[in-house]
Amino acid sequence: MNKVFLYLYPIKEFSQTFNLGDDYYSRNSFRNPFDVLNEAIQKRYRARDFKIVFVLYPDKDIYGISLQQGDKIIYTDVTFLQATGYNSDGSEKTKEEIIYPDEQKIINQLGNVEELVIAGYHAQDCVKRVGEVALSNGIKTIIDLDLTDLFFNLYKQVDYFRVESYSPERFKTYCLKRFNRYGDKFAEEMFNRNYESEACGFKDTNKKLK
Length: 210
Prior knowledge:
The protein is an alpha/beta fold. The chain has nine helices and five strands, in the order βαααββααβαβααα. Strand 4 (115-120), helix 6 (126-136) and strand 5 form a beta-alpha-beta unit.
């Protein structure tokens, strides 16, 4: 079976947004997040015979990731400057000026894929969009929400995060407990609103990866 783990846009501009610095991690006895991220990719996917593929903008370098022999880098059809919400002078773009990468062109570069796990930046935007296009291509697809931009908070939750595995059921239980202080109904509504995409793996019509 041709299995692929696809990680979107590991670039400095995104990663540094969530990096609180070595002093913070040492003071709070947390491991460096990039060490944990690389270990999780290794144990969850490389060690389980997934092909590891990273997607980059053609004008950006990879950041925070330890490339291993056999890993592959593919590129979007737009530059970071075209895709970002800001112009080169720092002014904010309108929604119409932002150009998303062509998700189908990303999928096409993967070749024949039977099982696809997607992670990276950002869970509610690019990751979801690519996941939905993959599903529309008939590819068995799920988002590893642990390893999206949510990772930088989740990996510090010692009662939740497991380096070696992702479980959609465990993720849902964790989220519902966090939202539950506002009531069960609110928790369920919030969860469904945030993770309603079939690519997230919480719908019966999308078989969950084990």
